[in-house]
Design goal:
- The protein is of the alpha/beta class and 465 residues long.
- It is built from twelve helices and 14 strands.
- It has a six-stranded antiparallel sheet. The chain has a six-stranded parallel sheet with strand order 11-10-9-8-12-13, with helices on both faces.
- The longest helix is centred in the N-terminal third of the chain and has 29 residues, at 99-127.
- The chain is elongated and about 80 Å long.
- The two termini are 13 Å apart.
């Protein structure tokens, strides 16, 4: 996996066949929808629940509608903020969701959070224009100061995330700032809620307030505090550094004092150097080795910058901390065949899957469609040729530019390329797509046009963070 990227799961949308041969497709698999549907239901409850709470609460005398609407929006904003802090926390509870979907949900739902906060502030001011004076901060009641502090922290968090590269914030510096501003926004919001003393400070609602606070801050601490993360982190040392074709580097690690972390082929882990200063400088990479040798995992890395460039100069014996495994990109046991579609360094999880299958003498059929800029950028060319002798594997190379004697396909992966590569009978087959976001989106769209059902396409994007 390339440096400073986030990974995970996404699913294409099914469609009726519109191209090529008629294919026998499998029935939908509903189970993989559940993690995302459950998480979206939690978010929906966080938005709608406060309105139900305010609507059912009896107040004497009744308050004007705008006052109650402002309260409901405020509680929704608090709930969404806490959930936003839980979502990226790498909890096993969300493992089925996939890291890619978790990151993209976190980003998209941040827009919803900001919209709800803006609506809360606007409604509160419209309900009582005299409250505009509270924005002066100095001299305002402490509950109003807490509200202003929360909004300012949230605005700074959003701004620094959007402008990170323009502000030239380092990756680790931005992560630290992101955590600090998010925690400050939540704490100020809780203080404001307690100061207002209306809906979440008595009876059952106060339990909800405490749960939201502990969930948000607890998830952040569990992820960022080294001592709390130590259970999921294992020490390794660099066994060897291998220069691959296409400029990539493979780090072959050796477990240091343990039997290795078991992982499923296709998953990824966060790597970092030891030390407090590097605790925020961790980077996600796919396992590229067989899952049957967890004590000697390998990670193949394209040198884009920072840590991913440094690995080429690592010497044997360099200590590495590995936090993993993570991700839901994997081959299902019930699958009767698998189509792997890889773009660039997105080949790494596919290599782990194929290497594991070869060691297990897997009799199933595999098709790998591998897109590269040019033939000299093919990582694992020799290894794939060897795997073709050990597995029922067909490898189709597609190069954007190639010399006249290039035997593979040219340009981009098209519906014709895929249609010619796939067997007619796809009953029980699974489709795994991995690479940069534009590549994954285009490939998923092609599969949709070929009539591949949504529940059998598992797509993972390498997203720069």
């Amino acid at each position: 996996m390339s440096g400073s990227t986030a990974r995970g799961r996404d699913t294409s949308h099914g469609a009726s066949p519109s191209h090529g041969r008629h294919r026998a497709n499998p029935p939908p698999v509903e189970a993989e929808r559940y993690p995302r549907a459950l998480w979206l239901a939690v978010y929906a409850a966080a938005i709608v629940g406060p309105f139900v709470l305010v609507g059912l609460a009896a107040r004497t005398p009744p308050r004007p509608f705008m006052f109650e609407l402002g309260s409901a929006l405020g509680i929704s904003a608090l709930s969404l903020l806490a959930l936003q802090m839980v979502l990226p926390a790498r909890l096993k509870l969300f493992a089925g969701l996939g890291a890619d979907v978790a990151v993209r949900l976190h980003r998209h739902l941040a827009d919803v959070l900001i919209a709800v906060v803006a609506a809360h502030v606007a409604v509160v001011m419209l309900a009582d224009p005299q409250r505009l004076g509270l924005l002066a901060f100095f001299g305002a009641p402490w509950r109003a100061q807490a509200a202003v502090g929360s909004v300012v922290a949230l605005g700074a968090l959003a701004s620094t995330s959007i402008l990170r590269r323009r502000l030239r914030l380092s990756y680790s510096g931005w992560r630290l700032l992101h955590v600090e501003l998010g925690g400050a926004a939540l704490l100020f919001a809780v203080v404001h809620t307690v100061g207002v003393g209306r809906y979440l400070v008595n009876g059952v609602p106060i339990v909800a307030l405490g749960t939201l606070t502990l969930a948000g801050l607890g998830a952040t601490l569990a992820l960022r505090v080294p001592r709390l993360r130590s259970r999921g982190v294992r020490a390794y040392t660099v066994g060897s550094v291998v220069q691959e074709r296409g400029g990539a580097t493979t780090l072959e690690l050796v477990a240091d004092g343990h039997a290795g972390q078991r992982f499923a082929a296709g998953q990824f882990a966060w790597l970092r150097l030891p030390g407090v200063r590097s605790s925020l400088s961790e980077h996600p990479f796919s396992y590229s080795s067989s899952a049957l040798s967890p004590e000697r995992p390998s990670f193949t890395i394209q040198p884009y910058g920072g840590f991913s460039k440094e690995v080429a100069s690592f010497e044997p014996g360099v200590p590495i901390l590995v936090d993993g495994p993570h991700g839901a990109f994997r081959l299902r046991k019930e699958t009767t065949g698998c189509v792997l579609i890889a773009g660039g360094i997105g080949i790494t999880p596919s290599m782990s899957i194929l290497r594991t299958a070869a060691e297990q003498d897997d009799p199933r059929a595999f098709v790998l469609v591998y897109s590269v800029k040019s033939p000299d950028r093919i990582v694992f060319f020799e290894q794939l040729a060897e795997l073709e002798t050990k597995l029922d594997l067909s490898v189709i190379y597609v190069a954007s530019s190639a010399p006249p004697d290039w035997p593979g396909s040219r340009g981009r992966i098209t519906a014709d390329v895929l249609d010619a590569s796939l067997p007619v009978d796809l009953r029980g087959w699974q489709f795994l797509v991995c690479g940069p976001p534009p590549f994954v989106d285009a490939s998923s769209d092609l599969l949709r046009r070929l009539g591949i059902p949504t529940d059998h396409v598992h797509a993972e994007r390498f997203v720069s963070i």
